[in-house]
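[step 3/7] fold_predict: job queued, chain A
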Amino acid sequence: MYLLIAGMVLMLLKYLQIGFVAELSWWWVLSPFALAVAWWAWADATGYTKRKAMEKMDQKKQDRIDKQREALGIKSRRR
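[step 4/7] structure written:
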């Protein structure tokens, strides 16, 4: 996401001819988009995104369990 935001800012600065970005080549200005594509390809190929999503779901599940145990007056087990 940060690479996309950086790419949008650089593209806007280049288009409006603001600052040092006006002097840069379009290849440099558009490179954050290529890096974002490479990042997403790597993250999907290695399972990084799926693993992070599962960790998030597991944390939500554990929080629900802890909340229910606390409501019942049972001490929760912390990992």
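[step 5/7] annotate
The chain has a mean pLDDT of 91.
Residues 48-79 form one domain.
exit 0
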